[in-house]
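Extended Data, record KIB1-4 beta-propeller domain-containing protein
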Amino acid sequence: MAAADSIPTPRLAYPCVMRRHEMQTAFSLPDQELRQFDMMPDMMPELHGTTFVATPQGWILVVANSGSELSLTYLLDPQTTSRVALPELEEDDLPEQRKCVLSGNDANAEGCGVLVLDMTSPAMWFCRVGGSRWSRHGYDIGCYNLPPSYCPVPKKRNIFDMAAVGGRFFFFESDTSSEVGTLDFTEGPEPEARMGVIAVPSLDGDFYGDRQQMSAVLTYLVESCGDLYLASIAFYGSCYDRPGTVRVYKMDFSASAWRRTEDIGDRAFLLGSPNFGASCSASGHELKANCLYWVNLFSEEGNDLHVYDVMDGRLEMIEMFNDDASAAQRPFWIVPLIVSERFGCY
């Protein structure tokens, strides 16, 4: 099912923040080093001239350009260049703004689900490893609560925050914080999407802080060592360079409730666009434990990485890209594979 290639590639320590600009560049966190891919054509050649999207599990969904001689769709391990074949997906079928999440950490497992979300409309694509085709699904989770003067025609809500725990997808929306959504797909060649809801106590008071002064809030669902976490970052007034309130919660499934925590253990949560949330071993990758590594796309200092200590609230800034990139060139994470004997959950 998965064919490993033996193509030697220049070493790039993961996790890294990657960006496509005039040159394809990556900032390696362990090395604190900026690499320019266009100057090293042998580095990750699979990502040149293709459409791809990184997953929180470390695999990269690659869809070859329609103009290539052979149309290929596969999951790529960027560290070893091994591949897991998937049913063919046309590049034109992928939404322009997209997010990909796997149902499990081991993409080599028969039946592992691959989910692609359209970040601008209520639509998604799904397939299984070893399956024969992708299926497209629409869904209805209600409409945005927007004033008629701003939006005369009700606009359908779509999912932003998504994570997978135990083979099931979970989603969360900040303005319905009293609910956690569930998503499952039936077996068979024509899988059906089944959505459900877990009622949880509202987080409004603690989650938002002073809601009247709040100007924006970012949320991220993160799977870490088999648990589901929610990280929230709120801003107040017109200050977007530094967060006003940062909270991390762990889902207590036995009580159907979020529990605020200041200890995520020897883990680092990697947060970015689009509502991307991943977890990896801190000591295994020379990162700071119990910290959120967060790409702040709201800030004018968009080239800086924020490192937030969950326990004591200390905030550190790391400069990644020393140029004036367009805001449209949003950096994204490529993270180490979660399935690893050396860098597992410990």
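Summary. DSSP finds one helix and 26 strands in the chain.
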